[in-house]
Amino acid sequence: MTGVVDWSVEDLGRQGVVRPVVRAPAAVLSMAGEVVDPDDPAVLQLAADLVATMRVSPGCVGLAAPQVGVSAQVFAVDVTGHPKVRTVHGTFVLCNARLVEASQWQKGREGCMSVPDLTGDVKRAGRVVVAGELPGGGEIEITTNAFEARALQHEIDHCAGLLFLDRVAGAHAIHTRKVYL
Amino acid sequence: MHDDARVDELAITVIGHDRPGIIADVAEVLAGLGMNLTDSTMTRLRGHFAMTLICGGPGAEAGTPAIEDVEAALAPLTADGTLATTVRKVGPEGTPEPPGGHYVLSVHGADRLGIVASVARGLAEFGGNITDLTTRLSGDLYVLVAELDLPAGADVDAIGERLEAVSRALGVEVALRPAETDVL
């Protein structure tokens, strides 16, 4: 069993391709993604593409397969350098991820590349244990907290066909995104 | 104690072109008349400034200021035509029935005519009372988030099925879940 910290996108041995990001109301964003074989070459390529697309997108800390138009349970996360992080596992991709423990719920404001002009206040667990498979790297379990925990829950939701809009806290919890450039 | 302590309140709306200082101007006018700005919402809707508020008068003895006086005091704000105001008296509201449950409803999907109408009708059929609702149109994406009270004994599963049917007909996503209230 490989640890997530030892996993690297370079291990995929593939050049990631930047893919266009799908925006709501695209149907693929509201479909539950397929369970994937984490050793399937197509999944390894998808993993590389997700990382490549995430890296060229300013401020992007996570990207799920449905966001590039693929209805599959695969996502990439990298919260390195974000001011709200505590635990950081660097760049990684998870397949077929599921939440196995969640506690310390707290509200926070989230945005999403697939809903570019809105943000919402969403309650998420501040501490989680997530189980899943690394592409080409076997089963793992990640224990994390704070912003990385929030990012994981947001991406797991994408893989289940859910957007943050499905979880906003109330009628005054959606906001027009303020962009200061 | 005064026989009728429940004095009328004023309902005031201010809508129009947004600029810095509208809230300050309106609040100063009301304060100048001795009016308490009680419950209010103020926001921007598609760039327009929109304010709805309820004001209480200075007390039962003095009474609520006359509508004409409030309108006259607000007149300078509307003089250039960029803002429109309304002022009217509203009677006191009774205490509502305690709801059976408080829920949050999220709807999102491609914009089309009748989303709010169909969803709200579906809820009304079950006696669901929407207490707060926000909609946003962002590109082609239409988002509705509502808070609602369901009557005691409401069949939540049946309401969920009704909303599912509405969402299928509209081609939108609907999520109904209990509102969580953390009491600390």
Helix proportion of chain A: 10-25%
- The stretches of 5 or more residues of chain A where confidence is low (pLDDT under 50) are none
Beta strand % of chain B:
35-45%
CATH architectural group of the largest domain in chain B:
2-Layer Sandwich
Task: Give the low-pLDDT segments of chain B.
Answer: 1-6
Number of distinct beta strands of chain B: 8
EC number (chain A): 3.5.1.88
Binding site for Fe cation (chain A): 112, 154, 158
Protein name (chain A): Peptide deformylase
Function (chain A): Removes the formyl group from the N-terminal Met of newly synthesized proteins. Requires at least a dipeptide for an efficient rate of reaction. N-terminal L-methionine is a prerequisite for activity but the enzyme has broad specificity at other positions.
Layout of strands and helices, then pairs:
The complex is a heterodimer of chains A (181) and B (184).
Chain A: H1 41-56, E1 62-64, E2 74-77, E3 92-112, E4 115-134, E5 138-145, H2 146-159, E6 174-176
Antiparallel strand pairs in A: 1-2, 2-3, 3-4, 4-5, 4-6
Chain B: E1 9-17, H1 22-32, E2 36-45, E3 48-56, H2 67-78, E4 83-90, E5 101-110, H3 115-124, E6 129-138, E7 141-150, H4 156-170, E8 172-178
Antiparallel strand pairs in B: 1-3, 1-4, 2-3, 5-7, 5-8, 6-7
What does this structure look like?
The complex is a heterodimer of chains A (181) and B (184). Chain A has one domain (9-176): Peptide Deformylase (Alpha-Beta Complex), CATH 3.90.45.10. Chain A is built from two helices and six strands; from the N terminus they run αβββββαβ. Chain A is an alpha+beta fold and 181 residues long. Chain B is of the alpha+beta class and 184 residues long. Chain B folds into two domains: 9-90, Alpha-Beta Plaits, CATH 3.30.70; 101-178, ACT domain (Alpha-Beta Plaits), CATH 3.30.70.260. Helices cover 26% and strands 40% of the residues of chain B. Chain B contains four helices and eight strands. Chain B has helices spanning 22-32, 67-78, 115-124, 156-170, and strands spanning 9-17, 36-45, 48-56, 83-90, 101-110, 129-138, 141-150, 172-178. A four-stranded antiparallel beta sheet of chain B has the order 2-3-1-4, covered by helices on one side. Chain B starts with 8 loop residues before the first strand and ends in a 6-residue tail after the last strand. At the A-B interface, β4 of A face β5, β6, β7 and β8 of B.
